Amino acid sequence: MATARAVAALAIFLMVALSASHMASSLCPGADGLGVCRASGYLPGQSGNCEKRPGLLRGRFEKGKDGGGPSECDNAYHSDEEKVVALSTGWFSNMARCGHQIKISANGNSVYAKVVDECDSVHGCDDEHNFEPPCDNNIVDASPAVWNALGLDQSLGMVDITWSEEEPKMATARAAASMTMFLVAALSASRMASSLRLGAGGLGVCRASGYLPGRSGNCEKSNDPDCCEDGKEYPQYRCSPPVTASTKAVLTLNSFEKGKDGGGPSECDNAYHSDEEKVVALSTGWFSNMARCGHRIKISANGNSVYAKVVDECDSVHGCDDEHNFEPPCDNNIVDASPAVWDALGLDQSVGMVDITWSEE
Predict the structure, then answer these.
(1) Residue 78: how many CB atoms within 10 A of its CB?
(2) Assuming Cys at both sites, which of 64, 126, 336, 350 could form a disulfide with 314, CB separation 3.0 to 4.6 Å?
(3) How far apart are CA 266 and CA 308, in angstroms?
């Protein structure tokens, strides 16, 4: 089997390396087979102070313009003179393309631009997103400098393009780096590649990707949550610690019922859940873009164990808004559990936070 597996792995790599498009990284399986990317849910609209722009492909990354907050990759704003872009959530790939130079072609011209932000395809209709809806799944949101370099009329707002990750004078080095990363991923027995990013301390270090300015509001306090404070900054995480056979985590208490501190409906099924159901939300890195939706995880604490269903994300990036009950982003190691989970483990709910371990048995 080893030789056959090696041949299969090499074949898959060659297909990816030779592809001129990015379909594999941006699409998800659907009922019609591989390559069908379907909506994961529907976001109720909420109007607000929306700084207008003419379309989806022309973005502004300057402070106070329609790009909203600072760019996610570097937590900074960028001048309209810089050639920078934001990519739809699938292509952004949990910050994996941050800092990459991509080649954009249109109108018979080409230009290189730097990826600095996510064009969020999941969240929207709030102040952080300029009260705009979530992006479509095939968007390159580009600065005016990119439009000018392509000789495009900015008043159009939306233009069909093609793009690739061919960086100038770096194709060979990037191909070598891609092969190295592929081999590491293929040989790894863990899920570290999907949930971690490199930090100054080496592999397995999950560092904050930025800081969210606090904004207080109507914070429902039935389970004594931490509520956002004006002016306070809260760390944001796109990653979580590696998942093992006994992953250490912190269990927090959350109600998934309508009108309680869980905020909106659960992300996996767009539904609310009774306090009697054994359900949990996982930090963003562990939630892994809905990859664990519906999974039953084993939670152990206090000498007891219980199985619970993953129904939601404990958002480690966004927060301090109505959708998140004006609570700050979750830490990167949270299993946010319903009262039924706490009861099954024989835990005192008034404590609110307990060290646990969990696994995907």
Answers:
(1) 22
(2) 336
(3) 14
Does residue 140 sit in helix, strand or coil? strand
| CA–CA gap between residue 321 and residue 324 (Å, rounded) | 5
What is the distance between the alpha carbons of residues 316 and 329, in angstroms, rounded to a whole number?
Answer: 4
The DSSP element (H or E) to which 2 belongs, if any, is: helix 2-18
The helix, strand and coil proportions of the chain, stated in percent and rounded to the nearest 5, come to 20, 20, 60
Q: In angstroms, rounded to a whole number, what is the distance separating the alpha carbons of residues 352 and 332? A: 17
Q: How confident is the model at residue 47 (pLDDT cuts 50, 70, 90)?
A: low
Q: Which amino acid is at 206?
A: C
- For residue 93, count other CB atoms closer than 10 A to its CB: 18
The Cα 57–Cα 48 span in angstroms is 21
Indicate the pLDDT class of residue 181, thresholds 50, 70 and 90.
very low
The CA distance from 263 to 318, in Å, is 13
Q: Can you tell me the distance from the alpha carbon of 318 to that of 112, in angstroms, rounded to the nearest whole number?
A: 30
- Residue 141 has a CB neighbour count (10 Å cut-off) of 25
Q: Angle at CA 318, nearest 5°, toward 247 and 143?
A: 125
Spell out the residues 6+ positions from residue 345 whose beta carbon is closer than 8 angstroms to its own: 251, 299, 301, 302, 304, 305, 306, 356
Mean pLDDT of the 50-59 span: 44
Q: pLDDT of 81-109, one tens digit each?
A: 999 999 999 999 888 889 889 999 988 89
Residues 24/106, Cβ–Cβ less than 8 Å: no
Condensed to tens digits (0 to 9), the pLDDT of residues 317-342 reads 888 888 787 888 889 999 999 999 99
